[in-house]
Amino acid sequence: MLNSMTDCEEGEGGPNSQGDGNPKESCPFINSTAVTDVEKSQQYENKSMALFEEEIDTSPMVSSLLSTLANYSNLPTGSKEHEEAENNEEGARPSKKPVKAPQLGTLMGVYLPCIQNIFGVILFLRMTWMVGIGGVFGSFIIVFMCCSTTMLTAISMSAIATNGVVPAGGSYYMISRSLGPEFGGAVGICFYLGTTFAGAMYILGCIEILLIYIIPQAAIFKIEGLEGPEAEIALLNNMRVYGTIVLSFMSLVVFVGVKYVNKLALVFLACVILSILAVYAGIIKTAMEPPVFPVCLLGNRTLVSKAYDVCAKVVEIDNETITTRLWRSFCDSDSLNATCDEYFTNNNVTEIQGIPGVTSGILAENLFGNYLKKGMTVEKRGLASNVDPDSTPSNTNRYVLADITSFFTLLVGIYFPSVTGIMAGSNRSGDLRDAQKSIPIGTIAAITTTSTVYMSCVVLFGACIEGVVLRDKFGEGVNGNLVIGTLAWPSPWVIVFGSFFSTCGAGLQSLTGAPRLLQAISRDGIIPFLRVFGHGKANGEPTWALLLTASICEIGIIIASLDSVAPILSMFFLMCYMFVNLACALQTLLRTPNWRPRFKFYHWALSFLGMSLCLSLMFICSWYYAIVAMGIATCIYKYIEFCGAEKEWGDGIRGLSLSAARFALMRLEEGPPHTKNWRPQILVLVSVDAEQKVEQPRLLSLTSQLKAGKGLTIVGTSVQGSFLSNYTEAQMADQSLRKLMETEKVKGFSQVVLSSNLRDGTSHLVQTGGLGGLKHNTVMVSWPHNWKQPECYQHFRNFIEVVRETTIASLALLVPKNISSYPSNGERFTEGHIDVWWIVHDGGMLMLLPFLLRQHKVWRKCKMRIFTVAQMDDNSIQMKKDLITFLYHLRIDAAVEVVEMHDSDISAYTYEKTLIMEQRSQILKQMHLTKNEMEREIQSITDSSRGSIRRKNPHTLRPQHSAEGGSLVEKTDDRSEAVSDPKQVQLIHNRNASKPTGSPAATSAGGAATWTDGKSTEKGKILSARTPEGGRDHLSMKPEWENLSQVDVRRMHTAMRLNEVITKKSKEAKLILLNMPGPPKNRTNQTNPMHNTVYQDYPFFADIQVMIFLGFGCLLAFFRLYGFGGMVFNFLTATFAIQWAILVQGYFQFYQDGKIHLGVINLINAEFACAVVLISFGAVLGKTSPLQLLVMALLEVPVFAVTEWVVLKYLRINDAGGSILIHLFACYFGLGVTFVLYRSGLSEGHAKENTSYYSDILSVMGTLFLWVFWPSFNSALTLKGDDQHRAILHTFIGLSASTLTAFALSALLNKNGKLSMADVQNVTLAGGVTVGASVDMMITPAAAYALGMLGCIACMLGYKYLSPFLARHCRIQDQCGIHNLHGLTGLISCAAGICAILMADEEVYGPSMYEIFTHRAPVEGNPKLHELQMLIPGLRAGLGRTAREQAFFQVAALFSTIGLSALGGIITGYVLKLPYLASPSDDFCFDDVLFFEVPPDYDSPLHLCNRTATEESAA
């Protein structure tokens, strides 16, 4: 309230002050400025709620406000305005009488009109025919479909109607106020046309009843004696004449007044109700006493009743056979010997009951349809007929024929108008007392009533009436009676007259509603040429609209066929109903605050179902009529859109636009756009002058020329000041931007930011521009003007910050230089070139810019030239070929030139330029100046540098254009440009800032003026400008050049040369585009060595090294005479296998750019491959030479690498612990080798195949090494963090379980109850293998323990039973039992892993599941992937596999690995059998003496054992 202090409250000394600072009592406004305005104060006293004087025109009086609230009606926006306009128009005519308030209620205004329209012409004239043609089933489906559609539409309509007052033209208002004026007008016109054609259809039905059933003699064009098309034309002409007469009469009645229509409606409705009751009474009567309505059949063909007097060929009168009239119809004379029609001769005449009754069982015959083609005879089913298929039908006029070709969709189109009367009440909503209440209740009640009648009539008609009678459309076979009338009781005339008056009433209702609908549309003013039809009589009756309606209705009368008119109006009604449902569904889904219907029994799903039914029925009825109707609606829609009055009704389409925009923005948030969808979304940063005018208007011209990509454009500027004080200036700047954008035809948004300084304002624009995913990806800013001048220093500093901020934000930066020289949108280049200097690869944006520019008329005739730079080591010819190929794939036509940058001598100028840069940086680093001091010192250094350069080379230094080279570039005469570089100011602003080492080559349109990162130079002798030596020319000191970094000097030289080349090559170009790298993100150029992965991976590498060389080596030394061989051959094989695996695996997995990249991970993978070889080595331990082992490693590693590559690249499995790829592969490869190397001499064992006390101790040491470091083996390549943590825990638990179980089983299975060292050495390790496949998954500790126990049991039983079996029966001599420790346990591990995969879900794992099971992650482009990446940064796209699919691939990998390993092992075994590989003989197996120099007593334990055994046997 402090800022509301006004002149009334100026306080002490104010003009209105009374000494105490209080305002006068007579001042009614807080901010009243006049002391003497007492009269004005009294004028507003107690009448207005205005707090301030300027609000008096907008704030209402207290009484009027309360009155408005009490009479709140929630009238839809738009309808009230046109009613007020009408009242104002009438107010100008005092002679007019006031319009009487509407008095119609629900019964009279809605229910009865709906009943009368629905029970119109179709029920009485076509219902029985439809049942006969379509069958009871087919007809019931049609009726149910149509009634369901209208019921769903009525529910939607009720919701809309109870959401506010529905004035005159109710259905139109429902749609227009819900979907907008365009949809409302289009659908309103269509509904108007449908209602108008409905009037024509009712009139045609009325005339059909009159001329066919009541007074056939009244026909002007006589039908008697005419046949075929002539009779049809005569009937149509009669319909046209009488239809026009009836239309004129009805129009006159409607013109007189709607009250007469309402009075007549009761009479007409009474006839309808009586007729329906008569039908039901007749149906009931047929159950007791069926009426006598005989139908005569010839064969199975129905005869026209006019063709016979007696249903017989001849009759017996006084024992004399006399021919009948029927005979004469088919024969050429009365004689019995006359020549007759062949069909007449061959078939008998029978008479059947036309209405056999409801209990006759005729329903079964009428259940299914009997569709006829035009001209076919109506035949009875199941009745025999003798007809010659080759004969030509004759005397067809004697039979009842089908007048049209019938099919299911035709029946739908003809029947649907019988349910279209549901809006008869809403069309007359202007005459209703309470439309909001009456429309829902009356409409739904009427639909329920009529639907019940229709569905029951379908069944009852099929159960009562003979099929041939049902298919007789005009009753020709029942003496010309109305078919439904034959069923009525007490007389057919009840139905005839009832239906006649019903159609008359329905026609009057249509002629009443249609003009009012047109009047409502016209008064809204959305269709300009229809405004004349909004006028009417003094009482509001739409006179002109009635005249137009009658004229259009006459078109339907001219068509003259009820069956042809019905599908036409079905299209218009269905389209209207479809949009009513759409409007309700849209409002419900949008949940707008104003959507509060009193009718609660609606749902958006019901509305969508109704809309779908409407659309389906449109195309079912007639697909071409549907297309025409949609075309008409589309034309009207576009006309209103372009020419109609702009209306804002708060409609759902506007709400839908907001929702669609929100949805689209949310979709954009789901992930980055695909490369194909990328386009420049430009933020244009402009500056404004003191008058808030844009200083660089050509920036917007360039933006407009770049917008062939049709992307987002935001034009932003910053205004200095505060929001409270300078808001007006910001508004002026915004208006200036909008006006310039309109002038330059830039489609986008303007944004003005108020900030305390321009630098922060620009930063805010870069950070906050756009909304959600619709953000800019490119920033365009002009090169700072006069940046060398001291007064423009701040502008250049701001520019440098924009460069840095766009780099940090990963945005592209466009820097057009000398923007004032750019062409406007009105200019044209007839020739010239756009030169592209491709210096740094940027993903293709540099190629995209000229393509976009050339889409604009300004640059269309310019040709592209692309230059790239080749250094001394580059092959310029190959570079040109590659670039041409690249452009071909990009589909860009351009000339290509490769510029060779020769390594010429470095000039003294280059050294001077580099030295200045170094000195600036080093001086400021040592001075530790404040911000202001640093800026002053920079300026002094700059001035000193300029002076020294001029003193040194005043005559040789020529202008350099390193930053201004190219076309459309300002040519400067400042000779110090390349020396003094104010761009350094901001770059060295911070003490640790990175120094620029290259000249910013910014061109007239392109690329960011950016810098590369340079290395720090050695600190030489630094002289401050404030020292006594400050006036000395430091640059003349040649020795100081030697202290410069040659890398920095070389970069400066390259930049200088490049600018010279650009200036030379592109001198005549219209535009030059080049790209430069961004400034360094790491300004200090320091890294944390602890971030190197070696510190994370090396401990695992060391642990696995211990397992390979100590664990396996000691474990394989368990034979008493093969200790050297077990350990040394393990050492030899492991060393060779690791080196060989680095090369082979490197080729498949780490090969890039012709090189194999090495790292600790490579070594770990190589050690895994080595472990595979050593496990396989265990199967042939003691039976192979070192050369054989090396050959086996030489062959096994490539097979393993290929298998690993196939499984990991194509099958994509989870195998963290290597159960499949390491253990199973090694096991079955080794078994394949030993199978081929089978030695029959060792089948019963070998004398040296035993252990000793010391060898077992050594082997147990190897077991301990493996046991201790096995967790590292299983967790080395798992994800760091929780996954690795789980792997370590699960491995330890599994090993512990297998160890305890091994000790227990060893004692249990030994006859003496003692422990076996073989069990301790091998079985204790089984748990490490069995948990391998699921080691990083979320299995419980209990599961890991159970797997350890299970693996131990399998391994123990394998050693005891399976290994001897394989040796005896399968020729597999497994020396170390690798099949037990690695094969069986590996299979168990795979099964456990598959179970864990099948049970894995997000409920247990959370989002981290997709890190463990990477191939189950969503595919690229899936919205869920973006959500997961927000939770887990760095998550990569997967294959979108399900758990079952992943388990299937695990199984496939299992069998593939076993198959490939076994095959590779067998092949390797045959290679090892080659004689020159020095395989040991059976006698020297398991003995070191063959390959090693051994001590003399190495076999003493064996001799002692043999001697002891001999003595015991002798004793």
TrEMBL record:
Residues 697-808, 829-958 form the SLC12A transporter C-terminal domain. Keywords: Cell membrane, Glycoprotein, Ion transport, Membrane, Phosphoprotein, Potassium, Potassium transport, Symport, Transmembrane, Transmembrane helix, Transport. Signal peptide: none annotated. InterPro entries: AA-permease/SLC12A_dom, Ammonium/urea_transptr, NH4_transpt_AmtB-like_dom, RhesusRHD, SLC12_C, SLC12A_fam. Residues 1-32, 76-99, 938-1036 are annotated as: Disordered. The chain crosses the membrane at residues 104-125, 137-160, 172-194, 200-221, 241-258, 264-283, 399-419, 439-465, 544-562, 568-589, 601-626, 1100-1122, 1128-1148, 1160-1181, 1187-1208, 1220-1238, 1258-1277, 1289-1309, 1342-1362, 1383-1400, 1447-1472. GO terms for molecular function: ammonium channel activity; potassium:chloride symporter activity. Residues 79-93, 970-980 have a biased composition (Basic and acidic residues). The keyword Transmembrane helix applies. GO terms for biological process: cell volume homeostasis; chemical synaptic transmission; chloride ion homeostasis; potassium ion homeostasis; potassium ion import across plasma membrane. It is found in: Cell membrane. Residues 110-283, 400-683 form the Amino acid permease/ SLC12A domain. Residues 1091-1474 form the Ammonium transporter AmtB-like domain. It catalyses: K(+)(in) + chloride(in) = K(+)(out) + chloride(out). It is a multi-pass membrane protein. Residues 996-1010 have a biased composition (Low complexity). GO terms for cellular component: plasma membrane; synapse. NCBIfam families: 2a30. Functions as an ammonia transporter. May play a role in the elimination of ammonia in the gill. Belongs to the SLC12A transporter family. K/Cl co-transporter subfamily. This is Solute carrier family 12 member 5b isoform X4. It comes from Austrofundulus limnaeus. The lineage of its organism: Eukaryota, Metazoa, Chordata, Craniata, Vertebrata. The gene is slc12a5b.
